[in-house]
Amino acid sequence: MSELMKKIEFLWGTPIFFTRGREQKLQSFGTFSEEESPFLHAPFLNRKLMEQCARQSLPVIYKDEYQMYFICVKAREGFYLIGPVCTGELDYVQLHRFQKAYHIPEGEENCPMRTTLLRMLTFAGFLYELEFETAVDIAALFEINALGNRSNGLEEEQIQEIHPFEEEHYHHTYQEECFVMECVRGGRASEAQQRMSMIMDGTGSHTKKQTAYYKNVAIAFVALSAREAIAGGASPVRVLRMSDVYMGRIDRAGSPEGLTEWSCKAVYEFARVVAGMKSGRISTSYTEQCKEYIHRNYQRKIHLEDVAEAIGISQGHLSRVFHQDMGMSVQDYIQKFRVERAANLLRYSQASLSEISNLMCFHSQSHFGSVFKRYMNMTPKQYRDRYKESGFMSRNEA
User: What does DSSP say about strands 27-28 and 16-19: parallel, antiparallel, or unpaired?
Assistant: First the structure.
């Protein structure tokens, strides 16, 4: 059974855990890394799912307040726990809230697997039938878990809710687009590439019909990135030449994977050109490595000794070289970088001031406010009130 479950886990696409009792350790089947699984860090979630599953006759499909789904299937000697998965787009702040709620260690916000509600229902029914050799009616499973309005059978709107990705493509939000463009204009190459990768990974299923949609998204982002690179100070001639090159590569790409690769590379290169223009002078490789370390780890506590050790030089030498190249200390650069990231969130997200303060790793909200004012000459609230676009709404608000 273990080997079979390993194959099932691989086909499903996310870790599956098994427990023989509510207080027993979780057993995984080893196909995926489980480090960020809520089941390992939030025992209250496990108890909630297993208690509900013990009470009802069919598997549990639970949707939490963060738009994540979890599955619990009763077995002969325990329970299977599966998740999280989601059916729609999740922005950076939503992912952070989700991770914090389930005590997942800080790190890159990796979006869980996107799938359809129909696939969840089918998979839960399959596991149950495999265990008890009893077929599960999908409509009954939908009904018992209160996944839509209760009525006589499934209405048309409920059917559409069950398979949203079969009817429409995933569309990235305007906020996500603005995040990428801010990164390009600011010369933040790694962050631009990471954001772009998240957007392309969630664009849709890899079907022939959707390859054209991937291509349209990729072309649009190359055009927008070229414009933002010029606005950020890059040479128009160089940018237009790069744009022609990447447009050609995208046009020749024949798969969603290829289109994703070239669009992410294009966004990264446009931002890198801006970064080169903004520097105004050539920095040492040590300074660039230090900046790259900060860009990757600014949401964690950063100590000079950690940066120096990662680069392979002494703290004193790093401090001298960095100040010579950048005209500021490493700690001042960290604070300035965090304030810039905070300004983006204030402008383009619904996150509260305390959430942004925590995300940017400030000691407290008051510390965040004082540092932000030092660089921006206004408080975080004043900045949000002045610059937040009225047109930024979540999909649920639109």
Answer: antiparallel
Domain range summary for the chain, segments of one domain joined by +: 2-165, 174-279, 285-386
* Residue 11 or residue 19, greater confidence: 19
| Size of the chain, expressed as the number of residues it contains | 398
C-alpha distances in Å from residue 398, one per residue of 172, 173, 395: 14, 11, 5
- For the full predicted model, state whether its pTM sits above 0.85: no
Give the DSSP per-residue string, 112-161: PEE--HHHHHHHHHHHHHHHHS----HHHHHHHTT-S---SS--HHHHHH
Instruction: Enumerate residues 6+ apart whose C-beta is below 8 A from 306.
Output: none
Q: What is the Cα–Cα distance from 148 to 40, expressed in whole angstroms? A: 29
Q: What residues contact residue 11 under an 8 Å CB cut-off, 6+ apart?
A: none
Name residue 69's amino acid.
Y
Decide which of 67 and 213 is more confident: 67
What CATH class has 285-386?
Answer: mainly alpha
pLDDT at 336: 92
Higher-confidence residue: 373 or 255?
373
pLDDT digits (tens, 9 = 90+) for 18-32: 887 655 677 776 655
Which tokens in the block code for residue 14?
């996310």
